[in-house]
Every structure is written in structure tokens, then in C-alpha cells.
Amino acid sequence: xxxxxxxxxxxxxxxxxxxxxxxxxxxxxxxxxxxxxxxxxxxxxxxxxxxxxxxxxxxxxxxxxxxxxxxxxxxxxxxxxxxxxxxxxxxxxxxxxxxxxxxxxxxxxxxxxxxxxxxxxxxxxxxxxxxxxxxxxxxxxxxxxxxxxxxxxxxxxxxxxxxxxxxxxxxxxxxxxxxxxxxxxxxxxxxxxx
Length: 194
What we know:
The chain is mainly α. Helix content is 59%, strand content 0%.
């Protein structure tokens, strides 16, 4: 039984630069064409961007949660002048440093998990929203240029800031559009081969 890449009687795909390429997938195979078309669809791009944003957001949330406290012994509001008063009849807040190690670790991991989940959801939503809008704009304009990313950034920023009113939506539009333009310009720069 021969599988691609194992040698044998597997046909080689000719290379335009001369010689033969290692055995692989035939670009004219209907299954390869179907998979390529599926991966280039707006739905797949939106889902992949949302999933990548979710994963990156989770990692970023874990990192930021580990950096959230000045010291590992800090309990927000405990013993701070002007802090919110405790609930009458409730047990006073115990500083984290006085808890057993197991409870300190449990508290830290619980907080890290909550922050990671929240950040992952936010990054996933932003990634999916931007990718879906950009792909839709690219399909409508039938062009792949920097204008698609800038317009998608503007719409994404305005949608995310819509609850803050028209001024917040305008600032969100301008901020996301500028960031998208900067990233897109950097990604489209010719690479030095030195």
C-alpha cells in the first residue's frame, strides 16, 4: 500500500523551475479544490479568526492575570483607608498571605481562569467580527487592498463602541481604522532578503 510521500509508484508533480517536487497533493484534485475553496470562504475565515483570537486571548489573559497584583499578598480593599466598608455581620477579609498555601494557589488559579476566559471571549469576538467584515467588504469590492482592512477596522471599532454613543463610535472607528492601516501597511511592505 502506497501513501503520498512514501515513494513507490506515486506520480511526481512537475515543478516549473525544473526538476521534480517531492510527492504531495495534486492541486487539480477535486478534494483539494473543495478544501481550498472552503478555507477561503468568509465563514471559514471568520471561524478561524475567532478561534485564533480566543486562543491568543486566553494566553494573554493568563499572562495579564499573573501580572495583576503588586505583590502576591495583596487583597484589594483590605485595610486600605477609604476602602468600601465590609458588610455588617460578615467575616472580615483575611489577607491572602495569611491563608494556607493550597487556598492561595486555588484563589490565584481561579482568578487566572476567570480573567483568561473573559479575555479569550473578547479577543475571539473582535477577531471574528473584524475578519467577517473584512471578508465581506473584500467580496463586495472585488479587490484585495489596504482599503478593505481600514474599512473593516472602522466598522469593527464603531460596532464595539456603539453603547457609548455616537462620539465613542466615531473614536472607536478612527482608532481601529488607524491600527488596521498600520498593521496592514507593515504586512504589505516588501521584505528585505538580506
